[in-house]
Write a structure and sequence with these properties.
mainly alpha, 0% strand
Amino acid sequence: MTPAPGPSARRRRGERAMVPRADFQSYYGRPVIKAPSWAATDIAGYFFLGGLAGAGSVLAAGAHLTGRTRTANALKVSSAAAVSLSAAALVHDLGRPERFANMLRVFKPTSPMSMGSWLLSVYGPSAAVAASTAVTGRLPRLGTAATGAAALLGPVVATYTAVLAADTAVPAWHDVHRELPYLFAASATAAAAGMALVTGPARENAPARCAACLAAVADLAVSSAAERRLGIVAETWRQGRAGSLLRAARVLTAGGALTAAVLGRRHEAAAVAGLALLAGSVCTRLGVFAAGIASAHDPRYTVVPQRERCNGAGGAPDA
């Protein structure tokens, strides 16, 4: 007796499965989770400015140690200005200034928001002292100590906002909690290198050009890895406003790094490359923010189990 053909044989003969593919929906098509009430301009700006400040302090310390005085001073000033504007954007989104002060009443290591508030309250004065001593030329030892302190805290300042976003239930952020800090670090480094190229003299910009190239490679690699991990949720990174912003970010970051590597010894070309890197970092933060909001509003990305997300998380494979 001839056995019945298996599923693979039926598929080869063009037969279709009798059971349709599952289509998961929420009640009345409403979002499953509540989207963050954060304002895009405030919070995406907070993400970008914090990254620029933190990575800028690291590059400033390197320039300070290697005798690139003009670049070091420019980066110290830009970091102090960026962290001040970052705090202003956060306070504006909170609505009342006292809400930020109230967050300092609690020290909770398991809360990214609590740790971020304390981090800003320590890093901000360090960056301010480093900038003021660089501008005035007074108290050089204090300035050196503040520069070192800001550089030590800088990487955390540049990346903790990624932890803050990934700690939410928003699929486009939470599902890439491993990759998002690295993406923010690469974007912040590109922005800081861009600032150094814009504000520093061409004869001092060799480390900034190197940092720009490394940041661009890391940015592109981590973005691709994040999209692979997201599965179906990656649609929010590729479509709509977020998709346009993230594509622009890749073009600007890669173009800025390439221009810096080839023509960066010329001041005008270095400035153009720096502006492209800064713009690319802005687009990255805005794009990631927009993708998160889009994923929170669409039930397809939050209803589980979905076939692709279940399999990606180690669920049972298709029969």
